[in-house]
Specification:
Elements (H helix, E strand, L loop, with lengths): L2 H6 L5 E8 L2 E8 L6 E5 L12 H5 L4 E5 L19 H15 L4 E6 L2 H11 L4 E7 L13 H8 L3 H5 L7 H9 L11 H10 L4 H12 L6 H11 L3 E6 L13 H4 L3 E6 L6 H18 L3
Parallel strand pairs: 3-4, 3-5, 5-6, 6-7, 7-8
Antiparallel strand pairs: 1-2, 2-4
Helix pairs in contact: 3-4, 7-8
Amino acid sequence: MTAVAASSLAVSPVHYKTVRVNDQDVFYREAGSESSPTILLLHGFPTSSNMFRNLIPRLAPSFHVIAPDYPGFGLSSMPDHKSFSYTFENLTNIVEGFVTTLGLSKYSMYVMDYGAPIGYRLALRQPDRVQALIVQNGNAYDEGLLKFWDPIKSYWAAPTPENRKALLFLVDQKSTQWQYENGVADKTLLDPTTWVLDQVGLDRPGNSDIQMDLFLSYGTNVPLYSEFQAFFRKYQPPTLIVWGKNDFIFPAEGAAPYSRDLKNLETHLLDTGHFALETHGAEMAGRIEEFLKKQKL
């Protein structure tokens, strides 16, 4: 085998680790040299750092890449919802403690779905640490909460047992698979083990209550949108938007308003759905690397 052929097979290994944060075990994936610029990858619902399993090795040759699982997701601790507060404020506490424990003083953030309000809450606390944003179907504007959110908004307005029960369909197998397939033209590009693994997590005893608590807590993010937007305007983090434009949950209407507040912005609307990495991972990795290198990161 030639040296060139051998080098082309070289990949940065991914390490699977766990660290203790606020009395919880936080599982995370890490790859790349610690001397390289750091990218913090924040996952969405109902998945985990597994959504980044293909992206991490693609970015690792150029970046230090870290992706944690939140409590209640993936391989992190899943304390009972009666003993642990499953709110976006508390998940941000965990991520902030995670970042501090790992000593991450500067990082770019990849935010998706739930990762957006968690990441933006973290940015409000540590604005000088955020070097850039990569936004994939992550909302920060009222325009992005359309029809999908109507029954959840009813729950916010009246958190009754009836309205809570009405959302349980969102954690069943059919809905989990739908999140991956909706808006995708070629479904043969999708790996079925993704939604099977997600459903295993959702089906753990007590996890449905965790998810219902978080659906309710998502309503606390909306009043913070103005603060997120003020952060964008004041700090002007270079921002790359790579958004699945066919997403019914966070539609493309949520991507457009970022241009109101951010000057150094690059937007790519991709012909796919909610989990854009599953179908457009190679393109997204290339755009991330190109964008961050252009920012000298």
